[in-house]
Each structure stands twice: as C-alpha cells, then as structure tokens.
Amino acid sequence: MGAYVITGGKSLSGKIRVQGSKNSSLPILASTLLNAGKNVIKDVPNLKDIKVMTDILEKLGAKVSKSGNILEMDSSNVNIWEVPEDLMREMRSSIVLMGPLLGRFKKVRVSYPGGCEIGPRPIDLHLKGLSLMGATLREKHGFIYAEAPALRGADIHLDFPSVGATENLMMAGVLANGKTIIRNAAKEPEIVDLQNFLNRMGAHIKGAGTDTIKIDGCGSDELKPVEDYTVIPDRIVAGTYLVAAAITRGQVTLKNVVLEHMEPILAKLRETGCKLECCDDCINLTADTTLRSLDSLRTLPYPGFPTDMQAPMMALLATVEGTSILTETVFENRFKHAEELRRMGAHITINGNTAIIKGVRKLTGAIVEAKDLRAGAALVIAALAAEGETTVYGSSHVERGYERLEDNLSSLGAEIVKKK
Ligand code: UD1
User: Fold this and answer.
1) Which one of 111, 259, 307, 342 is CB 3.0 to 4.6 Å from 299, fit for a cystine?
2) Which among 116, 218, 278, 279 is annotated as catalytic?
3) How far is the CA of 162 from the centre of ligand 1 (A)?
4) Cβ proximity of 404 and 234 under 8 Å
5) What is the pLDDT of residues 299-333, one digit of tens each?
6) Which residue's C-alpha comes closest to atom 7 of ligand 1?
7) pTM given for the model
8) Does the active-site annotation cover 279?
9) Is the CB–ligand 1 distance for residue 3 below 6 Å?
10) How many Å is the Cα radius of gyration of the chain?
11) Does residue 105's CB lie within 6 angstroms of at least one atom of ligand 1?
12) What percent of the chain has pLDDT over 90?
C-alpha cells in the first residue's frame, strides 16, 4: 500500500496554483455524452477519479485525447449504454452517467456504485427523479436498468439537496420533452459550472446556484460541441492548502481561486484567527498568532461549510488550544480519521455526529492509515505539524483528489515523500 512519509514541524511558506475542480470535471466529462462531437475541456486535474471517468467513457466508445490538463472528448461514436461494472465500482460519482446515457440512448445499465467509505450513500434521489421523468427502473443482481423511450420534463422536489442527484437530473432534463424543474436543488459552485457547460452546448438551463433549477428540454440536433471550456478552481483543494498553512503556522499564497466559492471556508479560518488577504483570484493566509478554537462548526450543503473540509479542519482544531465542537450533518460515518488522529496524540471524542476536540500543544508522529480521500488529506495535514515522522498509508485515496500533493507541499517547504 502506498504511503506518504512526512517529517513534521516545518512552517509552510510560498505560493502555489490551485488545480481545476475534480467535482466539476466529473459531471462535465459525463455530460459530453449528450452531444455527439468533439469537446475541449481545460484545467481538468490529473487524478485517479478523472482517469476512471475517462476510462468508462472510452469503454462506451468515446475518443479521449489528453494533453497535460486539456482533455479532448469526442463522443460521436459512443454506442454502448452499459457502464462497465468494475469501473463503476471504483467511483461513486459514475452514477451521474445515468442521466446523459438515458437522454442519448433512452436506456442505461449501471451497477451500484462504489467510492469512499463514508456512510451508506444511497442513490434513491437519483432514481426517484429519473422515474418521475418517465424512466422505468429495474433492479436485478446488483444492476440497475433504466429505460425511457421518451424522457419527459417533470417537477421534482429533492428530499435533500444532493449534489450528484441534481447533476444527474439536470443532464437527463437536457434532452427530455418539455420543462424539468428541480426544487431543493444543490447550490454548489460545481452545479453552476455544469449549467454553464451545458448551456454552452446549447441546453436551456436557468437557476443553478439557487434552490430551483429549470431546464427546457431540446432536441439532440440542437446540441453542439463545446470547443473551449475551463473548469472552475477546486475549492476543497484550495481549502486544504490553507488549512495546511494554518496548522504549520505558516504563510501561503494560493493562485487560481474563486473567492466567493471559498467564503464558507474562509469565514471559519478567520474565526480561528488566521489572517487572510484576498485579491481577484488569490488568497494569502498568515497564521502567525495563537489560533482560537471554534465553539461550533457544522457541515452543511453549500453555502454552508463543506463536508469535504471537515476532516482537514478537525486536524487543525486538534492543535488549537481550547475545545472545538464539530458537527457533521451531510454524511453519516464520516469521522474515521478521528481514530487515526488520536494515534498522533489528538484528543477527540465522538458522540454520534458530533466531535469534541480538545486542542493539544503538539501532535506526535505515528503510523496511520487513510480510509478515504479527505481523511487522508487530514492525516497529511496533521503530520505536517506533528513532532517527528509520520507514515500515512493509503496514499492512493488521497491521489483521487489531489494532484501532485507531495510536490506542492514540498515546494512550500514541507518534508514529504511518497513511497510505493
Ligand atoms: C458530492 C461530492 C462530494 C461531497 C458531496 C457533498 C462529487 C463527485 N462528490 O458527492 O465530494 O462530499 O457532494 O457535498 O461531486 N443522498 C441520499 N440519496 C441520494 C443521494 C444522496 O440519501 O440519492 C445523501 C447522501 O447519502 C449524503 C447526502 O445525501 O448523506 C449528500 O450526498 P450528495 O450531495 O449526493 O453527495 P455526492 O453527490 O455523492
């Protein structure tokens, strides 16, 4: 199992550019199935999850060419509507292929998705929405078959503003007959990015970024390839580097950020006492004073504090004097990193979906294991501040979301190497 070996105690300083957003790139790549043509998408991060998505699209018949962070996706010859089971299991978000495949081929077969081990993560909202749009669903031997000779627009109210379900239904709505309305939709910036990409393709979507999204369905002949599109910067990666700077009481400047997307994270970092200076597309964080604990940090759908930043933030709070209370409301069972952080000397008590963190003066190096992507990022962050050497096993989880993490951290002065 791959690992990062980190010698802690170096204060980070310097400047890095933030990669393009993984969570934007994935649905945007899936949506290229809708238009039979060549799309050029820029700033797509070079990550395992992206590779899984492009491998799936290739297996379905798409032509994919890659040059650095630019992907050329030609879906003209896609002729398969069954998503390969082995690849589907590798990444939960492959479920967003259902909407575009149903739109284009009127049928789709997927298996139950895999992905991070952070709670049951059902897909009922995706399926309910597609069924309201006229799809017939059958589940057999772990596969889900959906068929819809003619998808029709529908008025869908999501029980929870699920990011993936919102994206899936938006894509299904593009080629449906009539108007689709998604209420209680997710408002994440990645949803707006998907809307922008789909509209560049010729779709008629309004309202992304609010809780009601309206899609006027169109004919496939109205859709054209998108010749040049750049995905938004990754706000979670940006947040992770800011927290890494804060835990080492360092000073780091990030380029390529959208400040508005970062605000839920910046607000909490400010509350801890970190100093933040912002320009158009950059943020500078300085953490040169004693940081303060947080009475209450709750994860919530956007524009609340992102669940994906919960684990990194827990690592930081573990080093901040006083007691912090952190509540996870988006996913069940997303505290697996607490046990590993305890091995490094953190004082964390878990009570249901609440973590009580009593800051310690120093974390200490240990051998720990990342069980999911953001937990892995949290352990790396903790290791940067810990006394002595930490080995974080499970680097492959971290590589699902962070491009060249060890190079970026090294360039900021961290002592980190990756071993196979
Ligand atoms: C996306 C992000 C992930 C982030 C999450 C929440 C991608 C590729 N991944 O995941 O990084 O942590 O949003 O911001 O964009 N749920 C149901 N039924 C469903 C769908 C979801 O009950 O049909 C529940 C989930 O179990 C979870 C909550 O809704 O408790 C949020 O899930 P969702 O917003 O769908 O997350 P993802 O789209 O999987």
Assistant:
1) 307
2) 116
3) 5
4) no
5) 999 999 999 999 999 999 999 999 999 999 999 88
6) 23
7) 0.97
8) no
9) no
10) 21
11) no
12) 90
